[in-house]
Amino acid sequence: MSIVLKGLSKTFGQFPAVKKVELEIPTGDFVALLGPSGSGKTTLLRLIAGLEGPNSGEILFNGEDFTAKSVKERKVGFVFQHYALFKHMTIFDNIAFGLKVRPRKHRPSKEAINSKVEELLKLVQLEGLGERYPSQLSGGQRQRVALARALAVEPEVLLLDEPFGALDAKVRQELRGWLRELHQKLNITTVFVTHDQEEAMEMADTVVVMNNGRIEQTGSPENVYENPVTPFVYSFLGRVNEFRGNSLENYTPYGVDKPFSDKEVGYIRPHEIGLSRTFVNNSYPAEVSHVNKVGAAVRIELRRLDTDDLFEAELSAEKYNIMGGLKRGDQLFAEFQNLVIFNGNTLRNSEFELPPSNLVLRPEEVRS
Amino acid sequence: MKSELVSRQKKQSTASITKWVLIGSALSFLGIFILVPLIAVFTEALKKGVELYFLALTEPEALSAIKLTMITAAIAVPLNTLFGLIAAWAITKFEFKGKNMLITLIDIPFAVSPVIAGLVFVLLFGAQGVFGPLLAAYNIKIIFAVPGIVIATIFITFPFVVRELIPIMQEQGSEEELAALTLGASGWQMFRKVTLPNIKWGVLYGVILCNARAMGEFGAVSVVSGHIRGLTNTLPLHVEILYNEYNFTAAFACASLLAILALFTLFLKTIVEKAGG
Ligand SMILES: Nc1ncnc2c1ncn2[C@@H]1O[C@H](COP(=O)(O)OP(=O)(O)O)[C@@H](O)[C@H]1O
Ligand SMILES: [Mg+2]
């Protein structure tokens, strides 16, 4: 089922939690609503499910206006952040609930319900645990029961609120892969909420970045990571160096016709900073202040010798070894070719005249 | 080293003295104010033999008082259970203006002296009351009649079930209910299959306390009853009449019934507390 949100807004008292949201989700898409806590993700998800009513705007399912339809009529599967399992029912009864409450003429037979529940228990890898109560399961198992319960009614949309938020890192990692596979198998339009950019990037086909009740950017994980359209998206998705105001002049290789104001901020990701031991065009001297070699990438903290700005660069282990290892106090030359400058929320780079690329010497051997 | 040990021993012995003093005073307080009177009720009741005891309980006026007490409770308790469920639901699941006001109002029967409560009903429904002429026109009698007793009892016992349910329902939130709705349950199915099982022990607890008070209420009922023997006397009122007539054995025999009710209530309450975890 496809979902379209048109100018959707929700206000709690005086507080606008969701502001004029426009979003199109095609059938079968796997969407992450990504944003910091309080950015309105849960509220947006609840609006889609019908658990909240919007103050204005429309919600279309398969092109049909569903804005005024009740929760029951929407037939969405909803997995709550804290699972909301029925404490007093066994796992079996939890999963069977949606089938048992159907009006008699649509209710499957007892045998049909039994086999459906068994099938779902198998799908979520909890065979044999049907007689237990929710309190007798681990967090990860409860999460899977919540999912099986939602899937039992065969929804055409699956909505999950921070599905792995309350789990420890290892279980979370397992469940991510598992949910991804499940989506490939069932191909239900799925929207999940997360505040963890890594989770969104790893799992989703489409990432919707939210901030302050607004959608900042929508796109594939690669797209939002490589081409953030606002400073917020830049800083929220992955590590980034920020340079502000007047000192920005020292970073652009293009020469600037007008000076930078305080509102202008330059962003560059650590892996986009070029490092070399010798001077190349448009590079600046910097001193290594710390080296962190955990994992496949090496993080290097540096201080620019001319401006005293601190920044972080990242090299692959391989490149790092080619450079012959680094230690505190080493002097290098850093290059900020990919710096992206925003004035407020507007991109300013286009105002610069870019030099012909063949004139720029890139220290290729050390770029990661 | 040694002196430290001694001082520690000293401290410990002071602590244990404090402990025993506290426990001792709590127990003697309980003994003097609860246990001794309880024993006194039963010894007085049985002083002139078991035969007289049962005679006092089975004479027509006593039986009619017992019957009226039961009828009153049988009306007040279910109604207050229903009101309690509705009010607790409204307060915990919805946001609305005047919610704090409503929570305060619920406590009024606890805050107001029962005698005042009774007087208010006399002022409303009595012959000289606000609705007096209207009721007289339709020949409906509320004050000095059974309806008045029932109304006063409902008023006095209203808070028990609500008060019990509000914290339980607040703590549980409404996520399970919302989950039921997303799974296609109707409002009634949601209530019966999700809400009620989660609050059933709280409801039962509230009902037990509500019942104990409904059967034992004296002040408010005394004002509206009119003390008509065999007609508008509840058990507590009957005890008072017998006592005022120096019929001590019969008075204590009837009082012992109320004491048994209290003990039974405590017993049930303990069981429900255990079962509800
Ligand atoms: N029922 C509510 N009443 C009042 N404010 C609310 C309610 N639900 C959410 N909010 C507010 O709306 C904002 C967005 O909340 P939410 O959608 O839960 O954010 P997120 O899920 O992104 O953390 C928050 O500031 C929150 O305090
Ligand atoms: Mg949330």
UniProtKB/TrEMBL annotation, chain A:
Stored SMART domains: AAA
Keyword Protein biosynthesis assigned: no
Keywords assigned by UniProt?
Answer: ATP-binding, Cell membrane, Membrane, Nucleotide-binding, Sulfate transport, Translocase, Transport
Highest taxon of source: Bacteria
Give every ABC transporter domain span: 3-237
One GO molecular function term of this record is: ABC-type sulfate transporter activity
SUPFAM superfamilies linked = P-loop containing nucleoside triphosphate hydrolases
Q: Which protein is depicted?
A: ABC transporter domain-containing protein
Q: Which organism is it from?
A: Mesobacillus campisalis
Automatic annotation (TrEMBL), chain B:
Keyword hit for Transmembrane helix: yes
Q: Tell whether Cell inner membrane is among the UniProt keywords.
A: yes
Write down the PROSITE patterns for this protein, in alphabetical order: ABC_TM1 (PS50928)
What are the GO MF terms of this UniProt record? ABC-type sulfate transporter activity
Q: Give its localization.
A: Cell inner membrane
Q: Which membrane topology term applies here?
A: Multi-pass membrane protein
Which residue numbers delimit the ABC transmembrane type-1 domain? Answer: 66-269
Query: What GO cellular-component annotations does this UniProt entry give?
Result: plasma membrane
Q: Where are the transmembrane segments?
A: 20-42, 62-90, 102-126, 138-162, 202-228, 248-268
The protein's matches in Pfam families, at most eight in alphabetical order, are given as: BPD_transp_1
- InterPro entries named in the record: CysW_permease (IPR011866), MetI-like (IPR000515), MetI-like_sf (IPR035906), Sulph_transpt2 (IPR005667)
Provide the alphabetized UniProt keywords. Answer: Cell inner membrane, Cell membrane, Membrane, Sulfate transport, Transmembrane, Transmembrane helix, Transport
Question: Major location, coarse class?
Answer: membrane
Q: How does it assemble?
A: The complex is composed of two ATP-binding proteins (CysA), two transmembrane proteins (CysT and CysW) and a solute-binding protein (CysP).
Quote the function comment for this protein.
Answer: Part of the ABC transporter complex CysAWTP (TC 3.A.1.6.1) involved in sulfate/thiosulfate import. Probably responsible for the translocation of the substrate across the membrane.
Q: Sorted alphabetically, which PANTHER family does this protein's record hold? A: SULFATE TRANSPORT SYSTEM PERMEASE PROTEIN, SULFATE TRANSPORT SYSTEM PERMEASE PROTEIN CYSW
Its protein name is Sulfate transport system permease protein CysW
